[in-house]
Design goal:
globular; four-stranded mixed beta sheet; 26% helix; disordered C terminus; 21% strand; UDP-n-acetylglucosamine1-carboxyvinyl-transferase, Chain; alpha/beta; 457 residues
């Protein structure tokens, strides 16, 4: 399938900085998008005010905040309490629940967590709510949420295509009860329903009936967040959840750094050589990015904990002449890591096959088609499979690299550009979706290499 660029705007291409020597990186990342947006939803439905410390401030989280405010929820930016050090990436958030009203048009942008988490919550408001987003967002799968709302008794109007835009009229309550869905296209369908389910009259007994259920760690994250706020969630069998009706406790919480956004920085150690230290890496987490600890050693990295940090040692790296093997991976647990790992595989000396990621066709772009198009445009040999990609070794050269409005496609181009001169990412600004600071953080990382490269070249 051919990938199609669908950006709304373009600036001058960003020429990925070349590494000049082994890295000595020290990276501090802002909060997890997945955790921030889950906690925003739960705090909006809680039985009192909550404070979210160290939240992510990015386009995805800003869209969630704006939608909740439009529905009537109070969200204020506040300074840290008890003399705590301020978040260098933005203020803490104080969320005050309030009766929610309609008369709202929710702008989801390209944020899957907004388009899948907000409709069940907004169905608890009184009045009409319209859900829409960026033009490409109208191609993202939404049928499971639309059908779920209808099955739960919500009056939904759409064009029959199972996509945005759609409109529904909330009555202030949702019946809940038994519900069957096919969440094969995204685990976010499950999470979106579970998050609001305690506020449904009958709670929710949700059963998934599709052939696959990708990204299970994200559902585990949702269940853990619910339980942390006192909600009773039973899991009678795989693909089945029972959320009991009742209050969602107000709770102050601190957001972990985004471990999926750590992927390109950690992978950089294998490409350029040297070490990259990721600050405040949690010892226990539901984030799928934690799988990097076991995945990167497959390519030869040494990964170790040092106090609160994770240190990735790539040895001499590809830049220093290392030969990286090909690998075969099933990434059904965490497909969001695929773009960074495909970029790494495209630089390896052996063939790789990365599967379990067919659902990525329905993400911000068709990531399988986009990755194949970008790498192959650069001289690579990537072949699309039904459920993944096969990457053959090839000598890459500089070329245009499409971001396709997708933050992870843009960062994949940065990885390749560490050792391939002239990789021109057409929209590095797309990284603002979850990591607005990416260009500066990346430039700082590359500058730690021997020779102090010109990060602006």
């Amino acid at each position: 399938m051919a990938a199609t660029t669908h950006s709304q705007s373009r600036t001058e291409p960003w020429i990925a900085p070349l590494a000049r020597g082994p890295l000595r990186g020290d990276v501090s990342l802002p909060g997890s998008k997945s955790l921030t947006n889950r906690e925003l939803v739960l705090a909006a439905l809680a039985d009192g005010p909550s404070t979210i410390r160290l939240p992510l401030h990015s386009r995805d989280s800003a869209l969630m905040v704006r939608a909740l405010r439009d529905l009537g929820v109070g969200i204020d930016e506040v300074d840290p309490e008890d003399g705590a050090a301020p978040n260098p990436y933005g203020p803490d958030l104080r969320i005050t629940p309030a009766p929610m009203h309609g008369g709202v048009r929710v702008d989801c942008g390209l944020a899957g967590t907004v388009m899948r988490f907000l409709p069940p919550l907004a169905a608890l408001a009184v009045g009409e709510v319209t859900v829409d987003g960026d033009p490409y967002a109208r191609k993202r799968p939404m049928d499971a949420i639309i059908r779920a709302l209808v099955d739960l008794g919500v009056n939904v109007t759409d064009d029959g295509g199972g996509a945005m835009p759609f409109t529904f009229t909330g009555t202030g309550s949702v019946r809940g009860g038994a519900l069957t869905i096919d969440a094969s296209a995204s685990s976010q369908f499950v999470s979106g329903l579970l998050l609001s389910a305690p506020r449904f009259d009958e709670g929710l007994h949700l059963t998934h009936v599709g052939e696959r259920l990708p990204s299970m760690p994200h559902i585990e994250m949702t269940v853990a967040a619910l339980r942390a706020r006192g909600v009773t969630v039973d899991e009678p069998s795989v693909g089945e959840w029972v959320v009991h009706p009742g209050p969602i406790a107000a709770r102050d919480t601190t957001i972990e750094p985004d471990l999926s956004n750590a992927a390109p920085f950690a992978v950089a150690a294998l490409v350029a050589g040297g070490t990259v230290r990721i600050r405040t890496w949690p010892r226990e987490t539901t984030q799928v990015g934690a799988d990097l600890e076991t995945l990167l050693p497959l390519w030869g990295a040494t990964v170790a904990r040092d106090g609160d940090d994770l240190v990735v040692d790539g040895g001499v790296g590809i830049l220093g002449g290392a030969s990286l093997p090909g690998v075969d991976l099933d990434l059904s647990r965490g497909g969001e890591l695929a773009p960074a790992l495909v970029a790494l595989a495209a630089l390896a000396d052996g063939p790789s096959e990365i599967t379990g990621i067919g659902h990525l066709r329905g993400h911000e772009t068709d990531r399988l088609a986009a990755l194949a198009a970008d790498v192959n445009r650069s001289g690579g040999a990537v072949h699309e499979l039904d459920d993944g990609l096969r990457i053959e070794p090839a000598a890459l050269h500089g070329s245009d690299w499409g971001a396709y409005d997708d933050h992870r496609m843009a960062t994949a181009g940065a990885i390749v550009g560490l050792v391939v001169d002239g990789v021109a990412v057409d929209d590095i600004g797309s990284t603002a979706k979850t990591l607005p600071q990416f260009p500066s953080l990346w430039a700082d990382l590359v500058a730690t290499g021997a020779g102090t490269p010109d990060a602006e070249r």
